[in-house]
UniProtKB/TrEMBL annotation:
One of the record's GO cellular component terms: cytosol
Designated gene of the protein: acsA
Species this protein is from: Desulfosporosinus meridiei (strain ATCC BAA-275 / DSM 13257 / KCTC 12902 / NCIMB 13706 / S10)
Name of the protein described by the UniProt record: Acetyl-coenzyme A synthetase
AMP-dependent synthetase/ligase domain span: 91-472
Catalysis: reaction(s): acetate + ATP + CoA = acetyl-CoA + AMP + diphosphate
Required co-factors: Mg(2+)
Domain Acetyl-coenzyme A synthetase N-terminal residues, every copy: 38-82
Annotated Mg(2+) binding sites: V539, H541, V544
Length: 649
């Protein structure tokens, strides 16, 4: 990337233009591509044709705010679009999935291979009475069988609910209960830095309670680590056993465009995680279009998205987007520092990866480890880099550009959410000039604005709430089983628009700069953690009376959880209590929610009406000047906190 820097301008105003060699070969050549999206219905109608439909749609969009129906009347199947349609031509024997395990084991599945395994596993699900519309929970590490299980569900019209393998048994239980899944697919264990983590044992812990509801009838276990597991007669079966002698013929179920494809749970401001519902038609059109354009996908690319399939990025840009486009995807099971800190760069060198899509927190970790690791490997195959999950700070952007991209790869900073399903703001590589730290402008056919609380757009140069003005194809359709929560959470905060929960500003050039969440969601290493969830986990501890959590800035993770806890009357503090509280959060939610800091206090700062003043807690956690305290019931509380915080750390 070549830099054009006008002296005297702010750092933010630097433009980076794509190298001419990149632009010359880019799939999008039309510099006015964004104008094509101005007529949204026509644009998305056109994009719908990129998929194979069993029956064409009658109406591209029916909008009954806030409920949208896309490609109404159309019938299609997501797995068919990811597999069957590639088999007729030269892609039949192309690598669909290149897998590298943490221990160095390798597997390559061609499109034909993947098609065969998916069809067989779809037949296995059918034999376990899974029918169209039934839910299947997938609690797996990043291995090919996870993708196979997802596509097998899609093939027969079952709804998958992937639960990230880092979630605890209790978090898994909540999700199984909410979705009322009939089947759980898991592994004996998963590898992490050479250790094996027991996934099947967590499923066992999660299930006794749900059995009261009698929802889970079968558990299918993939053998991965070989660690011992308990198999419950009549409920648990081994994947390798049930896959024996199963027919490879399993016709793809013609699904209504608005039938459910999957539920994915995500954290919000209040209560338990929400089941975000995505449906087949609009979602597939959205991820397929964005994947091709944003990553400038060519037939010969080796595309690597480092996200776990337990997150939306794994769903949209590891599985459905790339496979619908017939791409070769790389999948790596393990940690970036196992056995050495250059594992990612070695993988890029070994497989000649051309496109890398990762997260700012990873980039900051690599920066900390130092550039000698990437410099020691041949990364010349790379031609495009992507970033997702949180704002990327300009320093990390510059490092990514220099040491990974060799200053010749455009960086696509992509802003989107579990709820949006697809990338919403991004450069179109080869066309859009870049600015480090900005996700640039909305994707064609997407209408994003920054507004004030009344919903009025703010002028350029100012900031406000980030909203989506009009429906888009991959938008969530509801919160599973709770239309009201969907309406209240997303469409009521600001009248007539979808509220993202993010704050952003736009500059004189109309470029967007996402600041971060304005709700009670903490973004830890790109993972959404609800403060209410962590507080709930802390209060669940026998000795805890009250808890309040905030996010504080963290050099590598972006944000870290900072918890303020008051103990029940008469409880003495003892050595190891803080560690015990942290472990309790891990047990309730998972390691990703472990607070970095826990501060014990007799009181939490509250207003006279008893509301905890998080704003002040945040000031304390960030170590900055404390804001207005006039509404506090007892100003002494805050002075105490301020004085004692460093002493306790
Ligand atoms: C895809 C994904 C969504 C939240 C979102 C925002 C933050 C994601 C970003 C970004 C700045 C980017 N976020 N991408 N912030 N720049 N490029 O991460 O989905 O897990 O639902 O998180 O992540 O705050 O609201 P999800």
């Amino acid at each position: 990337m070549t830099e054009k820097h006008n002296e005297g301008l702010l750092e933010e105003k630097r433009f980076f233009f794509p190298p001419t060699e990149f632009s010359a070969k880019a799939i999008i050549q039309n510099p006015n591509i964004h104008e094509l999206g101005a007529d949204r219905a026509t644009f998305w109608n056109e994009q719908g044709r990129r998929l194979d439909w069993f029956k064409p749609w009658n109406t591209v969009l029916e909008w009954n705010p806030p409920f949208a129906k896309w490609y109404v009347g159309g019938k299609l199947n997501a797995a068919y679009n990811c597999l069957d349609r590639h088999l007729a031509g030269p892609r039949r024997n192309k690598a669909a999935l290149i897998f590298e395990g943490e221990l160095g084991d390798r597997r390559v599945l061609t499109y034909q291979d993947l098609y065969r395994e998916v069809s067989q596993f779809a037949n296995v699900l059918k034999s376990l009475d899974v029918e169209k519309g039934d839910r299947v929970t997938i609690y797996m590490p990043l291995i090919p069988e996870t993708v196979i299980a997802m596509l097998a569900c899609a093939r027969i019209g079952a709804v998958h609910c992937v639960v990230f393998g880092g979630f605890s048994a209790e978090a898994l239980k909540d999700r199984i209960q909410n979705s009322l899944s009939k089947v759980v697919v898991t592994t004996d264990g998963s590898y992490r830095r050479g250790n094996s983590i027991p996934l099947k044992a967590n499923v066992d812990l999660a299930l006794p309670v749900t059995c009261i509801n009698n929802c889970v009838e079968s558990v299918i276990v993939v053998k991965r680590t070989g660690q011992p597991v308990d198999m419950l007669e009549g409920r648990d079966v081994w994947y390798h056993e049930v896959m024996k002698n199963v027919s490879i013929v399993c016709p793809a179920e013609p699904m209504d465009a608005e039938d459910m494809l999957f539920i994915l749970y995500t954290s919000g401001t209040t209560g338990k995680p929400k089941g975000v519902v995505h449906t087949v038609g609009g979602y597939m059109v959205g991820v397929s279009t964005t994947h091709e354009w944003v990553f400038d996908l060519k037939e010969e690319d080796v595309y690597w998205c480092t996200a776990d399939v337990g997150w939306i990025t794994g769903h949209s840009y590891l599985v459905y987007g790339p496979l619908s486009n017939g791409a070769t995807i790389l999948m790596y099971e393990g940690a970036p520092d196992f056995p050495e800190k250059d594992r990612y760069w070695k993988i890029i060198e070994d497989y000649r990866v051309t496109i890398l899509y990762t997260a700012p927190t990873a980039i900051r970790t690599f920066m900390k480890w130092g550039e000698s690791y990437p410099l020691g490997r041949d990364l010349s195959s790379l031609r495009l880099l992507g970033s997702v999950g949180e704002p990327i700070n300009p320093e990390a952007w510059m490092w990514y550009n220099k040491f990974i991209g060799g200053e010749h790869c455009p960086i696509v900073d992509t802003w989107w959410q579990t709820e949006t399903g697809m990338i919403m703001m991004t450069p179109v590589p080869g066309i859009t000039p870049l600015k480090p730290g900005s996700c640039t402008i909305p994707f064609p056919g997407v209408h994003i604005e920054i507004v004030d609380h009344a919903g009025n757009p703010v002028p350029k140069g100012e900031g406000g709430y980030l909203v989506v003005r009009e429906p888009w194809p991959a938008m969530l359709k509801t919160v599973y089983g709770d239309d009201k929560r969907y309406q209240d959470t997303y469409w009521s905060e600001i009248a007539d628009v979808y509220f993202t929960g993010d704050e952003a500003k736009w500059d004189e050039d109309g470029y967007f700069w996402v600041v971060g969440r304005v709700d009670d969601v903490i973004n830890v290493s790109g993972h959404r953690i609800g403060t209410a969830e962590v507080e709930g986990a802390l209060v669940d501890h026998l000795l805890v009376a009250e808890a309040a959590c905030v996010g504080r800035t963290h050099e590598v993770k972006g944000q870290a959880v900072f918890a303020f806890v008051s103990l029940k009357e008469g409880i003495e503090i003892y050595d190891g209590l803080i560690a015990e509280l942290k472990a309790h959060v891990v047990q309730k939610i998972g390691a990703l929610a472990r607070p970095d800091d826990i501060f014990l206090t007799a009181e939490l700062p509250k207003t006279r009406s008893g509301k905890i003043m998080r704003r002040l807690l945040k000031d304390i956690a960030e170590g900055r000047t404390i804001g207005d305290t006039t509404t506090l019931a007892d100003a002494e509380v805050i002075n105490f906190l301020k004085k004692n915080i460093d002493a306790q750390k």
